[in-house]
Structure formats: structure tokens, C-alpha cells
Amino acid sequence: MRIIVVGAGQVGSSIAADLAGAHDIVVVDRDGDRVEELTYSLDVLPVEGDGTSLSTLEEAGIDEADMVIASTDDDETNIVICGTARAVSDAFTVARVKNTEYLRTWERSERAFGIDFIVCTNLLAAEAIVRVVGIPAARDVDSFADGRVQMAEFEVPPGSSVTDHTVAEADRFDDLTFAAFLRDGEVEIARGDSVFREHDRVVVIGNPEAVQEFATIMAPQERPGTAEEVVVVGGSEIGYHVARLLGEQGFKPRLIERDPERARRLAEELPDAVVLESDATDADFLEREHVGDADLLVAALDSDEKNLLVSLLARRLGVDRTVAIIDTSEYVDLFETVGVDVGVNPREVVAEEITRFTRDGGAENVAIIESDRAEVLEVEVDDESVLADRPIHESVGELPDGVVIGAITRETDLITPRGETVIRPGDHVVAFLDACVADDVTPML
Question: Residue 117 and residue 134: Cα distance in Å, rounded?
Fold first, then answer.
């Protein structure tokens, strides 16, 4: 496909990097230096100019484009870009927005604004946070096959009962597949003789109950679903959506917001939350409110540094687990090293959502693992698939190393894949792919 990406910031650059190997990518940005930088590392065509300008889009080849992705940091600019592209071409248009009001308008009116699909940064980030709340020790969670299949990533804690054991010895779950280990920046496909080591990150795929059961091994002091006391720090849009979504799931979160007017408005809009007006970086306040008794704290303030500070204060006070919004992607690993349990970068979450639309082979859903080191995708198998009407051990033999079939759904049934399992056309397959083979393997599935 020929894809025009407008906006060479963090989101646009991530999308371009992910797609450049398999598609013709044109990157448009007003900042010529930023666009030129991408050409040194990626095989993309740079265009310096204003993406809302028809002449710039024509220079980028809008007449031949299959897709236009508007990923600047301004909602209105992205809407105008998509509207302009739709007016002069048949390209599929995708806009990134932060304001959920634009998303609601688009959802109520088909193709509103001339946009085929909208991704909302704040809402997607909140949903990513809420997914990890109910699963102890999970660093990342994604759902597939209408919720019947989950992928979860865990870090093996010190003293874990699986440490120094093989996958074969640890595998006592009927509906769970051990997909891979992430170790020292490398991806290692899980085999029966693969050994768990402290601080490994392990990716599992299976039904939600099996994933929850495995979580109890990773965090034996906790039980799934017991994060009853959740504190959200910061009444930002992300903080608001986290509290709202938790309330809808039966939690009664406490939300701390410093601004009096914003706190009042949030109290009115969040009937399932307790809103406290105060500065959450005030250690005395946190102690008075017994924040240390919380099972989980979400830091959603307006700066990475404040979110780190609050997370560290919370851990010192006794909070079991912390999740922090981290706008600067380069900080994620650093913050997690010094004490944040889970760092969520909203731009990476959005880039992941947009990327799934560009996958060859009709991927139904895609989850990016560890900044594009691997991915988990869901595909519907057709007659042309290498998997169709063959036992898994036979079809996987034709695929390169780095592929694990994690789960299969057939109508309403979940099937745990084994070597003799025969996959049929119409089945939905959830597979783990090492990033180095993903582009080649996806069309084969």
C-alpha cells in the first residue's frame, strides 16, 4: 500500500518505522529537519509542508494513496487533513485525536468529518491502564476474539516458584500457551525446555481464566480481581476516563485533583468515584488519606516527572502497585527501572491501534509488545492460509522461526492449540510473532 503519514512526531515516526518495511510510506511534516531525520533511518519519502494544504498532499501523491494517517499533535489539524484527503481521493483516512467529544461525534454520524476511523489518545491510554488493574503483576494485557482470548505480559519476580523451572514443568494450565520470553532485549520463543529466570518477561496467551490463574503464580500474595482500593492521581482526561471505566467495572476509585473547579466538575461526572481536592505530591496529605493502603495507584498528572514522584511516594507509603502515564517514550524503561511497576505511553498505544489497519492478511487485532520487539495478532483463516486444513505441527514447519500459535476460536468455542490440532477456514487464530518475521508471516496466515 501507499500510505501518507502526516506528522513526524513520536506517533507518526513510530507508525512509519513499523510500516516502512512492507509499504510505500510518505511522511509529511512542516519541520523539514524532522522529516529528513527519518530518511536516514527509514525507507520513506519525505515531504516538507502543511498537511492541510491540497498542494502538499498532491506532492505527497494523494491521487495514488491507499491510506492517509493524520497524526499531528493538534486534533483540528488532523480532522482537516482527513477531510481534505477524502475530498480529493478514495484513500482510507485515519485521524488521531485527544478530545473524546470528536470521537463521540464521529461515532454518532457515519463518516463524520470525512474520516473513516478515529483513534482517541486519552481513551485508548485509559483502556490500556484499566486492562491491567484486575490482573496481578501484569505489565500489559490485550483482548482478542471478542474477549474470549487474552494476551498478558508478566515479569518473573524474585523468589517466584517458577524460577529455574522449565516451561514443561510450569505448564499445568489446560487453556494457556506460553508464547515467548523477553530477555536482555531479545525475543526467545518458549519451548518445553525453556527455563524461567528472575526478571524475565514472559508472554502468555489463553482464556481469561487461565491468564488470571497464571497471574497468581507471578504474584502469590495477590488474588485476581482483588485490587479493590484504587487511587487515581490527576483529573486529566486520562485520569477521568480511568476513574470512569473503573466505576463501570464495579470499583469505587478515589481520584485526587488539585484544581478546585476541575475537582468539582469531576465529582459531578463521576458518581462511582470519591474525588479529593488536594496536591497529590504532598506526602502528608497522602499519609492522612491512607493512600498507602491502596492496592494500586494510577499517576495521571500533567508531567512525567510528577508522575514519577507520586509513584515513588506511593510505593514508599506501601501501595502495592503503581501505573504511570509517561509521555516521553524514552523514559518508560527508566521509570520502570527506578520503581514504577507499569509505564503507559499514550502515543505508543495510539500507534499500535493505527498499525493494525495496515496489516496485510486482514488482521482483526494487533498488540505491539515491548516497543515493537514482537506482536500478537488475530487473523481469520481463509482457504489460502498456510494454516488451513492442516495439523499445526505441519503448517508451522513452513513458517520461519519466531511464530507461536497461541489460541484458536471456532464460533463460540476456544481451542487450545496443540501439534495435532487442525485449523479450519473461518477459525480465528491468535498468534505471537517476533518482529523480525512479522511482515513476512502475516500474509501467510
Answer: 29
